[in-house]
């Protein structure tokens, strides 16, 4: 399961980061932060192609010896980053995609809430609850 | 002690009464005197009072313990309600009004208890708990007021809740417990007040709110302790409360966590949803509020409007956000009436101190109908590819929520997906089926071209008629009579068509219009083709020239026959036309079709009778080249040409010879005589190569040609015989030379005998073959006939 999940706003500041508390969260924060560069690179890589053609799922951003980082971008440039433990039996791509899909849906629901101001940190309890299974927390 | 379940109001009331009776301040026992006085104040007959005391067990104990006191009070309430006094009814009867005591002070107490929510009644009666409560009430009022600006009476009444929020020192959850009593009191006094809507919030949270905690909030610590003693498991007491009584008769029955864990559990489970149930008055109020925002009750309130509305409640945004997440069931960013009611209810609860549930209570869930309506509402998320995912995610979103309602949008969308999938699969299946239909069922028919040469005119006509009948699409246009080669070609075309259903047909065979039309219903086309092939042996089906694959008979004659077909197609059906049609074929190198058609035409002509004879004459002209062909045939015969056309030509010639003989029989023209001569000449010519020709003929003409050789042979035979006869000199010529002549004649006769015998055998063999073919073709025809008639 994922060890860290992060939702980054368009301006590249985190809206929501949640990681397995067993490990230093700071490390994951840093990983997510650095992964943003890769995300940006992937996004900009499709320069002339329209956003529609660009796939939302970015795939494996970069692997390290401990974990792998997967990325996902929405059409509104909101980025999702999932950090998965490498020791885990490597999750199939479809599983990662499904995780992103669920994450996206949860994020959508948060957005739908009129009481949520886009750009605010996500503090939805239900959203957090939903992301629990993703995290395996 | 009997189990006793009391509502909040009752609890409070009873506790106060107990205190009242507890003149000794023992907190445990109510003095009998006071109790009895109280009971008498209930305006019950003494017998009833005695009965009550007995039932409650006070007589046993000799004094009124708290439990007994409560039981007694309950019984009093029962009695005052007119219900029979039974222990069972203690717990079973719900919505029991509080016992009324006609006592001055008690009355006041009661009144105050009843008017718990009244801010005005803060004055007198204020046992500690109420005071505290009232204080909170005020705050609650203040809180509530802005929320409900339109409901005036509310500030007066409601606030039932004074939420023990701040109170519970002992239990953090105490504030969850909602003070129903006030609502109960309100109910008693002001049932009609819409404000009761607010009080509605007296439902207990399903959480492990400790009634104790709550009680502790309202009762002095010692009482609390007593409560604690009274109760078994403070934290575990769930106090599922029944819907607050918006109606006068409803007094919520609360499960006192007193020694009845089982009851608690039962009540808890049974009343799980009840705390969140919206009463009718509440609902009506909500509906009214809904109308202020959205006049159409079936419409939706947009998120922004809802946000404004609920912001007025002064709840923190975070909580409002949470409420929204709970209440917006279909996640569409808008609130339906049910969703709005649920949200409103949650707001009220929250304002009254109830913790927001983690998941939407069932009673607050929008109905399925709404779900159905909202299921179709597109997700505001414009993300592509997620149209289906929300469906699958919904179950994950609120795992604790009952899945029934949530499955609806999921099912709807998933059903759609499945439907599309099934459609696709079905279409593919149909495609495959379609393809299977295309597959030729009788490849043999395609390959075999047993076009019987021997065609009686009647048969030809019949076939023509059949063609006309069946070939509505096959526009075989035409000529009812098709030469065999055309048939062969048609058969080959059929074969090709069968095998190359739609594709090759249209290729390069412009004449095969009918065939192209056949392509559309390929299966039927195949059938037709089969019918063609089936019928072809019998005769000349004017089959729209199926594109003859170069295969069999790749002879040019076939191609020429195609042309012939076109020509034939162009020509309207008619027995005489074949003759005309046959005319052009004379030109082609191997006017097989013509020759074949001609003989057929001749046949038909013969069949027709005399009038056709005239047609034969013109046909005879073209026969001239046939003669030439005949010579060619001879040449070919010598060379054993592999052309089938020759055979038909030969056959044609032979036929013509036969016809000529026939004509001879009829005795007609000089032409005939010429033909006769020609035939004789031919016969002469034929006689020598007579042997060889049949052989090659036999070899090549596997199907139709076999017939032709037969035909050829027959006339050949006849000619041979004629020639033989003719050549045979009259025996009695000269005896002198007789021996030699006889011997010569004998030799000749022997030769002719052998030749004839050989011919006979060959013909026999051909006859057998033809018969077999005929049988097979007839069988095929029978098989195909139903198809052709379809």
From TrEMBL, chain A:
Q: Write down the InterPro entries for this protein, in alphabetical order.
A: Longin-like_dom_sf (IPR011012), Sedlin (IPR006722), TRAPPC2L (IPR044760)
Q: What is its main location?
A: cytoplasm
Subcellular location as annotated: Cytoplasm, Perinuclear region
Q: Which cellular component terms (GO) are annotated to the entry?
A: perinuclear region of cytoplasm
Q: Which UniProt keywords apply?
A: ER-Golgi transport, Transport
Look up the record and give one Gene Ontology term from the biological process aspect: endoplasmic reticulum to Golgi vesicle-mediated transport
Q: Which Pfam families match?
A: Sedlin_N
Q: Which family does it belong to?
A: Belongs to the TRAPP small subunits family. Sedlin subfamily.
What is this protein's name?
Trafficking protein particle complex subunit 2-like protein
Task: Name the species this protein comes from.
Answer: Cyprinus carpio carpio
UniProtKB/TrEMBL annotation, chain B:
The UniProt keywords, alphabetically, are: Calcium, Coiled coil, Metal-binding, Phosphoprotein, Repeat
Q: Where is the composition biased (Polar residues)?
A: 155-165, 395-404, 509-536
Enumerate the SUPFAM superfamilies for this protein. EF-hand
Q: Where is the signal peptide?
A: none
| Highest taxon of source | Eukaryota
Q: Where is the EH domain?
A: 10-97, 282-366
Its BP terms in the Gene Ontology are: endocytosis; endosomal transport
Question: Which parts of the chain are coiled coil?
Answer: 749-780
EF-hand domain location is 315-350
Tell me yes or no: is Chloroplast among this UniProt entry's keywords: no
UniProt GO molecular function: calcium ion binding
Q: Would the keyword Repeat be found if you checked this record's keyword annotation?
A: yes
Q: Where is this region: Disordered?
A: 150-193, 372-404, 467-489, 502-561, 641-706
Which InterPro entries does the record match to this protein?
Answer: EF-hand-dom_pair (IPR011992), EF_Hand_1_Ca_BS (IPR018247), EF_hand_dom (IPR002048), EH_dom (IPR000261)
Example GO CC term: the record gives: cytosol
Q: Quote the biased-composition stretches of kind Basic and acidic residues, using this chain's numbering.
A: 467-476, 667-677
List, alphabetically, the PANTHER family matched.
EH DOMAIN, RALBP1-ASSOCIATED EPS DOMAIN-CONTAINING PROTEIN 1
Protein name per the record: RALBP1 associated Eps domain containing 1
Q: Which species is the source of this protein? A: Cyprinus carpio carpio
């Amino acid at each position: 399961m994922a060890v860290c999940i992060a939702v980054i706003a368009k301006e590249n500041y985190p809206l929501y980061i949640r990681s397995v508390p067993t490990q230093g969260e700071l490390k994951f924060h840093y990983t997510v932060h650095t992964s943003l560069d890769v995300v940006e690179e992937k996004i900009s890589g499709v320069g002339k192609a329209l956003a529609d053609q660009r796939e939302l799922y970015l795939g494996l951003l970069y692997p390290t010896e401990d974990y792998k980082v997967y990325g996902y971008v929405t059409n509104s440039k909101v980025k999702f980053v999932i950090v998965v433990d490498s020791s885990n039996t490597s999750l199939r791509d479809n599983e990662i995609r499904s995780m992103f899909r669920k994450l996206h849906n949860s994020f959508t629901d948060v957005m739908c809430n009129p009481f949520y101001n886009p750009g605010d940190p996500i503090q939805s309890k239900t959203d957090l609850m939903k992301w629990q299974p993703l995290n395996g927390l | 002690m009997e189990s006793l379940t009391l509502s909040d109001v009752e609890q409070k009331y009873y506790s106060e009464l107990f205190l009242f009776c507890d003149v000794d301040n023992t907190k445990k026992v109510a003095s009998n005197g006071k109790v009895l006085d109280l009971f008498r104040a209930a305006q019950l007959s003494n017998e009833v009072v005695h009965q009550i005391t007995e039932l409650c067990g006070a007589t046993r104990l000799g004094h009124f313990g708290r439990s007994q006191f409560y039981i007694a009070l309950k019984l009093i309430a029962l009695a005052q309600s007119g219900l029979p006094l039974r222990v069972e009814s203690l717990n079973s009867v719900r919505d029991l009004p509080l016992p009324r005591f006609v006592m001055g002070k008690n009355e006041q107490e009661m009144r105050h208890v009843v008017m718990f929510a009244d801010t005005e009644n803060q004055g007198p009666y204020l046992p500690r708990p109420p005071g505290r409560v009232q204080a909170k009430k005020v705050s609650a009022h203040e809180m509530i007021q802005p929320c409900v600006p339109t409901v005036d009476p509310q500030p007066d009444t409601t606030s039932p809740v004074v939420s023990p929020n701040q109170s519970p020192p002992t239990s953090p959850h105490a504030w969850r417990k909602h003070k129903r009593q006030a609502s109960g009191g309100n109910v008693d006094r002001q049932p009609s007040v819409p404000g009761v809507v607010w009080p509605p919030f007296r439902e207990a949270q399903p959480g492990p709110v400790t009634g104790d905690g709550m009680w502790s909030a309202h009762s002095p610590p010692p009482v609390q302790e007593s409560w604690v003693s009274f109760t078994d498991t403070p934290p575990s007491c769930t106090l599922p409360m029944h819907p607050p009584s918006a109606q006068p008769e409803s007094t919520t029955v609360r499960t006192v966590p007193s020694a009845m864990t089982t009851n608690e559990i039962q009540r808890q489970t049974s009343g799980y949803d009840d705390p969140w149930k919206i009463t009718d008055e509440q609902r009506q109020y909500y509906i009214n509020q809904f109308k202020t925002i959205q006049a159409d009750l079936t419409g939706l309130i947009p998120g922004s409007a809802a946000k404004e509305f609920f912001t007025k409640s002064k709840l923190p945004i975070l909580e409002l956000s949470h409420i929204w997440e709970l209440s917006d069931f279909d996640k569409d960013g808008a609130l339906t009436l049910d969703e709005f009611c649920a949200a409103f209810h949650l707001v009220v609860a929250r304002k009254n101190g109830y913790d927001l549930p983690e998941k939407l209570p069932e009673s607050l869930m929008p109905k399925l109908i709404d779900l159905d309506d909202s299921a179709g509402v597109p997700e505001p998320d414009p993300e592509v590819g997620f149209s289906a995912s929300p469906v699958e995610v919904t179950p994950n979103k609120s795992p604790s929520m009952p899945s029934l309602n949530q499955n609806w949008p999921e099912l709807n969308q998933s059903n759609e997906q499945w439907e599309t999938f099934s459609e696709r699969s079905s279409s593919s299946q149909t495609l495959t089926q379609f393809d299977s239909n295309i597959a030729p069922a009788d490849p043999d028919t395609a390959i075999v071209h047993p076009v019987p040469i021997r065609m009686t005119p009647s048969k030809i006509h019949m076939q023509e008629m059949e063609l006309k009948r069946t070939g509505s699409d096959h526009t075989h246009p035409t000529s009812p009579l098709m030469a065999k080669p055309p048939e062969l070609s048609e058969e080959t075309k059929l074969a090709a068509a069968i095998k190359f259903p739609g594709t090759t047909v249209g290729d390069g065979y412009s004449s095969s219009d009918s065939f192209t039309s056949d392509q559309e219903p390929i299966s039927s086309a195949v059938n037709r083709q089969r019918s063609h092939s089936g019928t072809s042996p019998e005769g000349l089906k004017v089959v729209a020239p199926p594109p003859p694959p170069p295969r069999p008979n790749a002879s040019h004659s076939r191609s020429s026959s195609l042309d012939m077909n076109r020509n034939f197609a162009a020509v309207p059906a008619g027995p005489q036309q074949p003759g005309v049609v046959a005319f052009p074929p004379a030109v082609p190198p191997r006017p097989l079709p013509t020759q074949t058609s001609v003989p057929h035409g001749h046949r038909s002509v013969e069949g027709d009778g005399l009038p056709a004879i005239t047609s034969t004459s013109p046909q005879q002209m073209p026969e001239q080249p046939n003669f030439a062909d005949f010579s060619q045939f001879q040449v070919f015969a010598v060379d054993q040409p592999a052309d089938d056309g020759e055979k038909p030509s030969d056959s044609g010639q032979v036929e013509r010879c036969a016809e000529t003989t026939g004509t001879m029989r009829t005795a007609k023209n000089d032409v005939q005589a010429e033909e006769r001569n020609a035939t004789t000449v031919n016969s002469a010519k034929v006689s020598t190569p007579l042997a060889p020709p049949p052989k090659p003929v036999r070899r090549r003409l596997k199907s139709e040609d076999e017939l032709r050789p037969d035909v050829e042979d027959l006339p050949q035979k006849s000619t041979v015989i004629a020639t033989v006869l003719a050549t045979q000199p009259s025996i009695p010529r000269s005896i002198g030379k007789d021996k030699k002549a006889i011997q010569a004649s004998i030799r000749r006769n022997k030769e002719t005998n052998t030749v004839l015998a050989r011919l006979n055998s060959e013909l026999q063999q051909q006859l057998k073959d033809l018969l077999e073919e005929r049988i097979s073709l007839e069988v095929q025809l029978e098989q195909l006939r139903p198809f052709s008639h379809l």
